Amino acid sequence: MDKKVASLLNQQVNKEFYSAYLYLDMANYYIDMDLDGFGNWYTIQAQEERDHAMLFMQYLQNNGVKVTLDAIDKPDKVFKKPIDPLVAAAEHERYVTDLIHTIYEAALKVKDFRTMQFLDWFVKEQGEEEKNADGMVKKFELFGDDPKSLYLLNQELAGRVYSAPSLVLD
Ligand code: MG
What we know:
Largest sheet: none
Number of strands: 0
Shape: elongated
Bound molecules: magnesium ion
Strand content: under 5%
Structural class: mainly alpha
């Protein structure tokens, strides 16, 4: 595999674990204020990010690239009010989309069609992630200020269940 592509994929393992860390930090913020439904939402989001990290790692392994694990940054976002993590999550997903696109660009440049095909799933996934994250901000803007609505929204988010990613590598 091209060195630049391999290095970017390896970095993405760390970025996905960081995403998991960031979402756990958000889960902790909400659980601490007794918004357990929001906490559940982000706990499951963190599980998905861990799955993404594992997929990048497995893809590298399958292609004979040794994976190097780096230190995971401390989540450093400051949340002052309940909408803050939702806005931060939407911003973060756009950042991750950029990362995926950068790897895709590097793969395209060296005609690494296998990596491009692997990344296709993530390109689509990021579309979903951005849509969901923006949807959370919109819902909170509409209902967050009314205690009764916030209670119901929290209950709705408590219903999210974990499901394994649809991408399965051999
Ligand atoms: Mg991810």
